[in-house]
């Protein structure tokens, strides 16, 4: 347990009873949960190594209630942690002992489907998959597809700027969202963007997306929907060396082919997945690539051939091409179940999420292998190869003293390595608490100060989701101070015209 | 007027710090090719970024390019073109529309103004392709945001704010953009003689089809009256034209063109334009040549209206009718370029009220200084969003040094 959360405010905890009853005034009935037993399911999110019971859980049903809850908390200096479905892998929705946990689970309605403008207007508690399902009858879908899509909420997707295997071609959440209704911590309700392809003024939607619940509570979302491609087929390609698989990925991209998805698994991941779902993965290869091409069948057939030729040129040892939808789904089954599959072979695992330049893959895999030896922990890799997003899964046993700390140190080393080779700490899971203390690896004090100033523009008291994303909390007044260096300063000596 | 031609990011920091100390607002320019857009600014100090023009790295295999913000856009485009790559958002060249220098414009200026072209409906805008930036805030501090990889959610996505902020938040010094492979082939279907509303329906049907349309535009006949180049050939038949673009590998683009033509048969039979002709036509649409400064409409103010695409046809048709103006449609109706006859407010009041009513917004892109002095060039926002935007500006530039008053009029005290 190496990540520390801000100390709970005793004065707030003392007032717990009056806070609970004030919240009940706003959200009547079962919308306020305060008994320890009933709050149990809210103790953690998908980052299960860390747990903390909240002070109280509130589940409002209307924007007006959200607004009143936030205004009350704002006026009374009470922290708030927003929560969607609680699948965050970085601890973004982990409760705080002295904070209200504000769940959006009751915002379950799709408000409008507008096929002419190709948008869906929905409440934030609706799951990612439910949006695609609601428009499937007309051949549409919502493109970003996190593996957690049956459970995760669209509000959570906005907050995390989530991705999925199809991001390479269709973009992340941020590229597929047009507008939202957001409630600021002072209770103010704002509409940002809408059905128009661009919003006016500053791109506030762009900054809200990926803000990890620190800027406001999203109560409605407008997303773009796309027509489903006519067909999709996949290749499953095995390589005797990881380097060859990496080379294949690079060559596909430089040939100008942007596949719908391009995923890689290393040997431990292949074995775990195969044992779990029996997808027919080759067990004697070091790396497996799944490349999906989608579009009209003439295009897909053509590109499949091109990719196959490229793979052979890179020394592939096996190559299967899906001939039916059933087979395509089977190819994916192992990849999509990779996390639970690894969960079966190890009591616990940590899922990392760095991104690296594609070309650095062989180097990074070799270095991770060395770290695995150094820390004495196994590591299985699944990898959104097309866009360089790594998911090393570090296997450990929390019941063995010291193993969790070792796993965390191993993970931190991997992320430092990602930054060192020109990549970033997180590609899609968010910073949350998990990578919070590593932020200085990537950003200077000045970089972080600018981000925190932006936070101040939304939340001056720092009441929304504190302790997440930023390693050090600064007061807004301190961040906003302009240092005027030595009174009047002349413009530097520069070429003038 | 004092023009400060900076050599590197450290110079920018120094200039901004001095400007803060002296409470001297700065106008930020690359080549100044879009200087006439926005509210006129009251400043006599110009920070000129054109010398920050180095290409730091171009890595075609990683699909990224890193350049100084002052790098000439035309040079960068030809550099990536040589590797068969492009910026998928198809940045427009507003020179003809504004009547400014021909190939001027820097990468930083392109990002700061965020004027994306026809492919925006499919591949997004400038904001979707800016992966990382180094910039100097109004605190005089150089900061970085984003990175050099496509997939990145580390910290707030400040790139989104910088794109389209018209230089009011921070001075970008170096930027990393995503590049994409250029499609192998393109086909454009031409439907003739549709009125704006019917054309809107045809574009809606096309964009709602599985054929992956990458451009959907409509030019009423009147907009083809004084066309040049590619549009002249199209206009020769004396009909309005509705254009739908399909791109990709050759077998695919041609087959989709056939399928789409069939699906749209109720709107008439479609002609097909192939590669060069198709490319030339879309370049004209991207750069809005029917409303160019050299045409008979050259003296008219030009608006850029962004609205829900399916509402575009009716909106534009009514607007043209009521004002006697000229409109052309891109983005399947989601982008309307309107040249309106001169009026004291350039019809701002009417436009804002109507655009607002359908969930759209309007920006004056070409207008005389007198008009820009007197109206809001950028669409006014709800009071809550406007207040939040002011706080955002303040968080980057508390002394309001950078492009003061370009987007939002200063409250007169
Ligand atoms: C098995 C598994 C697989 C996964 N696969 C992927 C994947 O492929 N790609 C990927 O990107 N992620 C993946 N994730 C991570 C996770 O599912 C996503 O981050 C998801 O978007 C979180 O959604 P949620 O509704 O569960 O949000 P929560 O976990 O409840 O919250 C996440 C963050 O969003 C904030 N938040 C939630 N709702 C709102 C709101 N309405 N307004 C403001 N802030 C809000 C919270 O405060 C928190 O910071 C996976 C997780 C699991 C468990």
How large, in whole angstroms, is the Cα Rg of chain A? Answer: 24 Å
Could you tell me which ligands this complex binds, including any ions or cofactors?
flavin-adenine dinucleotide
- Straight-line N-to-C gap of chain B: 25 Å
* Major sheet of chain B: 5 strands, antiparallel
Measured between the Cα atoms of the first and last residue of chain A, the distance is 60 Å
Alpha-beta classification of chain A: alpha+beta
Helix proportion of chain A: 25-40%
Shape of chain A: globular
Work out the number of β strands of chain B.
Answer: 18
Strand content of chain A: 15-25%
CATH topology of the largest domain in chain B: Vanillyl-alcohol Oxidase, Chain A, domain 3
Average pLDDT across residues of chain B?
Answer: 95
Q: Please give the most extensive interface between any two protein chains, plus how many residues each contributes.
A: A-B, 109 and 105 residues
> How many domains make up the coordinates of chain B?
2
CATH topology of the largest domain in chain A: Uridine Diphospho-n-acetylenolpyruvylglucosamine Reductase, domain 3
Short description:
The complex is a heterodimer of chains A (497) and B (413). Chain A has 497 residues and is an alpha+beta fold.
């Amino acid at each position: 347990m190496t990540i520390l959360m801000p100390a709970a405010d005793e004065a707030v905890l003392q007032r717990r009873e009056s806070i609970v009853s004030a919240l009940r005034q706003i959200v009547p009935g079962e919308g306020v949960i305060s008994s320890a037993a009933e709050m149990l399911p809210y103790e953690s999110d998908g980052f299960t190594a860390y747990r903390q019971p909240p002070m109280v859980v509130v589940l409002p049903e209307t924007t007006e209630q959200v607004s009143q809850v936030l205004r009350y908390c704002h006026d009374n200096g009470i922290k708030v942690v927003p929560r969607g479905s609680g699948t965050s892998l970085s601890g973004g929705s982990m409760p705080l002992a002295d904070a209200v946990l504000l769940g959006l689970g009751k915002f379950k309605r799709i408000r409008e489907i507008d096929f002419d403008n190709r948008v869906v207007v929905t409440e934030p508690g609706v799951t990612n998959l439910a949006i695609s399902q609601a428009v499937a009858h007309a051949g549409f879908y919502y493109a970003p597809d996190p593996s957690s899509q049956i459970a995760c909420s669209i509000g959570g997707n906005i907050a995390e700027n989530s991705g999925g295997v199809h991001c390479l071609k269709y973009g992340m959440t941020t590229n597929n969202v047009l507008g939202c209704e957001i409630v600021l911590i002072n209770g103010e309700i704002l509409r940002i963007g809408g059905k128009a392809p661009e919003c006016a003024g500053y791109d506030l939607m762009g900054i809200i997306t990926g803000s990890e619940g620190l800027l406001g509570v999203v109560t409605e979302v407008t997303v773009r929907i796309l027509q489903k491609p006519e067909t999709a087929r996949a290749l499953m390609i095995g390589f005797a060396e990881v380097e060859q698989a990496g080379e294949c990925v690079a060559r596909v991209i430089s040939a100008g082919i942007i596949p719908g998805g391009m995923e890689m698994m290393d040997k431990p991941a292949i074995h775990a997945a195969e044992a779990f779902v029996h997808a027919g993965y080759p067990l004697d290869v070091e790396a497996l690539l799944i490349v999906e091409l989608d579009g009209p069948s003439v295009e897909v057939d053509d590109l499949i051939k091109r990719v196959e030729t490229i793979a052979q040129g890179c020394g592939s040892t096996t190559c299967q091409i899906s001939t039916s939808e059933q087979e395509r789904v089977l190819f994916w089954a192992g990849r999509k179940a990779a996390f639970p599959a690894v969960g079966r072979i190890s009591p616990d695992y940590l899922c990392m999420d760095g991104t690296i330049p594609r070309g650095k893959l062989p180097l990074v895999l070799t270095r991770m292998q060395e770290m695995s030896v150094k820390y004495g922990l196994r590591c299985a890799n699944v990898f959104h190869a097309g866009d360089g997003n790594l998911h090393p899964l570090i296997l450990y046993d929390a019941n063995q003293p010291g193993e969790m700390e070792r796993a965390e140190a191993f993970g931190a080393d991997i992320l430092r390595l990602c930054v060192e080779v020109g990549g970033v700490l997180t590609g899609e899971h968010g910073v949350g608490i998990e990578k919070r203390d590593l932020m200085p690896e990537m950003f200077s004090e000045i970089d972080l100060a600018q981000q925190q100033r932006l936070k101040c523009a939304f939340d001056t008291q720092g009441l929304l989701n504190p302790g997440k994303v930023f390693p050090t909390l600064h007061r807004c007044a301190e961040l906003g101070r302009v240092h005027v260096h030595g009174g009047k300063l002349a413009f530097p000596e520069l070429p003038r015209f | 007027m004092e023009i400060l031609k900076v050599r590197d990011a450290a110079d920018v920091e120094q200039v901004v710090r001095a400007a803060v100390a002296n409470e001297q607002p700065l106008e930020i320019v690359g080549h100044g090719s879009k200087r006439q857009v926005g509210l006129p600014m009251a400043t006599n100090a110009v920070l000129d970024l054109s010398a920050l023009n180095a290409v730091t790295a171009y890595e075609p295999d990683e699909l990224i390019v890193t350049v100084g913000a002052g790098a000439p856009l035309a040079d960068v485009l030809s550099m990536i073109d040589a590797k068969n790559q492009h910026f998928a958002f198809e940045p427009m060249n507003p020179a003809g529309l504004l009547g400014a220098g021909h190939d001027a414009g820097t990468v930083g200026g392109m990002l700061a103004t965020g004027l994306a072209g026809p492919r925006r409906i499919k591949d997004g805008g400038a904001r979707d392709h800016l992966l990382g930036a180094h910039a100097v805030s109004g605190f005089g501090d150089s900061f970085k945001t984003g990175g050099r990889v496509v997939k990145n959610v580390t910290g707030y996505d400040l790139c989104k704010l910088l794109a389209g902020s018209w230089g009011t938040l921070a001075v970008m010094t170096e930027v990393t953009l995503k590049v994409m492979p250029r499609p192998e082939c393109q086909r454009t279907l031409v439907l003739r003689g549709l009125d704006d509303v019917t054309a809107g329906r045809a574009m809606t049907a096309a964009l709602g089809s599985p054929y992956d349309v990458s451009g959907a535009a409509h030019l009423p006949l009147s907009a083809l009256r004084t066309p040049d180049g590619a549009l002249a050939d199209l206009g020769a038949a004396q009909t309005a034209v509705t254009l739908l673009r399909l791109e990709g590998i050759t077998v695919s683009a041609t087959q989709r063109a056939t399928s789409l033509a069939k699906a749209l048969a109720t709107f008439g039979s479609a002609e097909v334009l192939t590669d060069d002709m198709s490319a030339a036509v879309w370049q004209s649409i991207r750069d809005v040549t029917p409303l160019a400064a050299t045409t008979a409409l050259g003296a008219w103010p030009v608006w850029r209206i962004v609205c829900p695409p399916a509402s575009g046809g009716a909106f534009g048709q009514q607007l043209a009718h009521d004002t006697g103006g000229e409109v052309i449609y891109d983005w399947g109706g989601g982008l309307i370029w309107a040249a309106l006859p001169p009026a004291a407010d350039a019809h701002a009041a009417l436009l804002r009220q109507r655009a607002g009513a359908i969930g759209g917004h309007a920006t004056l892109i070409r207008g005389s200084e007198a008009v820009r002095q007197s109206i809001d060039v950028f669409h006014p926002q709800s009071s809550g969003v406007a207040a939040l935007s002011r706080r955002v500006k303040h968080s980057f530039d508390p002394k309001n040094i950078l492009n003061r008053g370009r987007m939002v009029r200063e409250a007169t005290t």
